[in-house]
Amino acid sequence: MTGTAPRTGGRWIERWDPEDETFWKESGERIARRNLVYSVLSEHIGFSIWSLWSVMVLFMGPQYGIDPAGKFFLIATATFVGAFVRVPYTFAVARFGGRNWTVVSALLLLAPTVAAIVVMEPGTSYSTFLVVAALTGVGGGNFASSMTNINAFFPLRKKGWALGLNAGGGNIGVPVVQLAGLLVIGTAGAGHPRILLGAYIPLVVIAATLAWLRMDNLAPVRNDTGAVRESLRDAHTWIMAFLYIGTFGSFIGYSFAFGLVLQTQFGRTPLQAASLTFIGPLLGSLIRPVGGWLADRHGGARITLGTFVAMAAATGVVIFASVRESLPVFLAGFVSLFVLSGLGNGSTYKMIPGIFQAKALARGMTGEAAAAYGRRLSGASMGLIGAVGALGGLGINLVFREAFLSSGSGTAAFVTFLGFYAVCCAVTWAVYLRRSAPATVAASPGAERKPQLTTV
């Protein structure tokens, strides 16, 4: 059932049919879960490296000569590169194999880590810091290749849970590196960022080694330029990318900016900021699999709409707290945004394979043909959606930068975010939930069983 054939660069599984329940029970589930575990490990460290500069800026005191706007731009640079490289990372899985590319992408994390060790000291030029911050973007690419890889391993009925767990385990790399930064600042002081950086070098090597020893490549996953072109032409790819800006863009943008906002707007010291920064990303990461699970049970569009409504309400709380300069209320609202963005991350990614599976069924495909079509299109679109969604993090940091430059407060930025969440609510309802919406495909539980015109 899962025989292998030798190929250059690693271990390949020639036949893979997760929708076949007999195959899944006999061998597929065990293999898929094993690959999921080591994919999560590598992606976790990738997220830590990608978000490294959300911690490094806390080490950069007045002696570095960089103002808050400059620090926001360092963070934004890492965000932008991480979003950009998601596209080639998506297609690298089919070109080189999921296991092989996981090894390579993990080892690439050594470059930004070692570079940061070399330059992280007062007197380094701002342009050098920008280049090194850009290098950390390779960690953002790990998400796209990992999600594309794991999407191929699991059947549609399990994708919400599997993708949520894979992404949530990766996302939690953000609060982990922030907690590690807190530990360093609290024990050694803000003058020793190299302790944190040095700790990640052996972790990167361990992740790459375990991926080499324990993961597999799927031979049926091929680079399919036809699928890429078709996904680019499909309006749902861009609609879901827009919605993912609202969920993941919020999560990663807030994760990178949280500590700096606390320092700049509320006058927290590096230690005080670091002691609070990790809470939101941690809760948002832990709850992402729950968002996928809820989407499996109740439909991705329903959960996504509810999430955006709640995010708009939480943003209103943050605006109130920002105007009143109430740190406790601000923290409550801001942490709520993290939790809700985590739920939305899980539900939106569940919608993607469901949409393309339903399109296949609506075209008259059945069985493995419909499942294969869904895997082709969802795999091709996930990297694009992930890349555009990550650009939302760039947008958040640039909006924060402009708000603090013009007024010294983040209030105007949060008003902008509130308006965007309102638009996301309208789009989700109009495209995926409005009963009179024409030719809308399902993103609901049961989409693998029958075609539907609207999400219920």
From TrEMBL:
Keyword Transmembrane included in the entry's annotation: yes
InterPro entries: MFS, MFS_trans_sf, NO3_transporter
MF annotations from Gene Ontology: nitrate transmembrane transporter activity
Domain of life: Bacteria
Subcellular location: Membrane
SUPFAM superfamilies attached to this UniProt entry: MFS general substrate transporter
Record's bilayer topology term: Multi-pass membrane protein
UniProt KW Magnesium keyword: no
Residues that span the membrane, as ranges: 36-60, 72-89, 101-120, 126-144, 165-189, 195-213, 238-261, 273-291, 303-323, 329-349, 382-400, 412-432
Keyword field: Membrane, Transmembrane, Transmembrane helix
Signal peptide extent: none
Pfam families in UniProt: MFS_1
GO cellular component, one term: membrane
Family according to the record: Belongs to the major facilitator superfamily. Nitrate/nitrite porter (TC 2.A.1.8) family.
Protein's name in the database: MFS transporter
Organism whose genome encodes this protein: Streptomyces venezuelae
